[in-house]
Design brief:
With 91 residues, the chain is mainly alpha-helical. It contains 3 helices and no strands. Helix 1 crosses helix 2 and helix 2 crosses helix 3.
């Protein structure tokens, strides 16, 4: 007798590929923050490759990353071909 654990469910993976991220970004553009059932719709837009919980968590990580970047919490590496721009003085 087959167990229910073999029933089809969306693949689960903490790793997101570049094409999956692009699809996720497009879905976020289609379904903004005011969209009812936003995460269900984003997951469906992605073709079921990620679950509702995965897209919700991925968005929460994205928001946290953006906040850290905007607060200068992430160093930006400049390359020799382009010097860094002057930063405005705070204070």
């Amino acid at each position: 007798m087959a167990s229910n654990s073999t029933m089809a469910s969306p693949p689960s993976s903490s790793q997101w590929t570049r094409p999956q991220n692009k699809l996720f970004e497009r879905a976020l553009a289609v379904y903004d923050t005011d969209t009812p059932d936003r995460w269900h719709k984003v997951a469906r837009y992605m073709g079921g490759i990620k679950s509702v919980d995965e897209v919700r968590r991925h968005y929460q990580h994205l928001v946290a990353d953006v906040a850290q970047i905007e607060s200068d919490g992430v160093p930006f590496h400049w390359y020799a071909a382009a010097p860094p721009p002057a930063r405005p003085q705070r204070g």
